[in-house]
Amino acid sequence: MDLITIFRFLLIPIGIGTIFLAVKLIKPPKKIIFLALSLCWVAGGLNLIVDIIQQNFGIWQYAVPGLVLGYPIDLYVAVSLVLGGAAPLIYWWLRSYQKKWLLPFLFLLPCYLLLQDYLVITLTGNAVIQLQNSYWWLVDFVALIVITWGTLFVFRCFLSDDSSASASPREKW
Questions:
Q1: 60 neighbors 72 (Cβ within 8 angstroms)
Q2: What's the pLDDT tens digit per position in 151-172?
């Protein structure tokens, strides 16, 4: 069994572990946990949409075996769990208790994810992704912003806290 197969096997347990760790460290109310978990599909759906766009415009192609219609479903499940479950929990905690770190989190999360993609591509060569465009990183960064900020925007829209119900719209955001 090669390293990429082992990594793909561990993707979903890593995603579940990330949510478990976020819940244990942050200790959000059950309402927030269920909201974050119920919106995991948003991150997975946005990820699939931007990947379809990137593949159709010749940015990259997945090269790993076991793809479903050309896409790694295990990767989408892991992204859904981490960006759809854990990231909204961290966002909620920062928004509720550490407001000064919210803006750096919103900026650094896509940067971290871009670095992660770069390392995967660098360490595996063409074994996972075959790059077809030298500006892949720019398109990928925009896609990561769409995925993370889009997911957090939907989470924020569904988030209803009674304390800000009487606040002005400017104070809510």
A1: no
A2: 999 999 998 654 443 344 444 4
Q: Measured between alpha carbons, how far is 16 from 47 in angstroms, rounded to an integer? A: 18
Q: Which tokens in the block code for residue 126?
A: 């063409």
CA distance 134 to 120: 16
Q: Are 95 and 102 in contact (CB under 8 A)?
A: yes
Query: What pTM, to 2 d.p., does this model score?
Result: 0.85
Which residues 6+ apart lie within 8 Å of 74 measured at CB?
Answer: 8, 11, 12
- Block residue for tokens 């949510």: 19
Residues 159, 35 contacting (CB under 8 angstroms): yes
Burial of residue 73 (number of CB atoms within 10 Å: 0-12, 13-18, 19+): middle
Q: What span, in angstroms and rounded, lies between the C-alpha atoms of 159 and 77? A: 23
Q: Residue 117 in contact with residue 140, Cβ under 8 Å?
A: yes
Q: Using one digit for the tens of pLDDT, what is the confidence trace for 61-74?
A: 888 888 888 888 88
30-49 mean pLDDT: 93
Structure tokens at 71: 């896409």
Helix, strand, or coil (residue 71) = strand
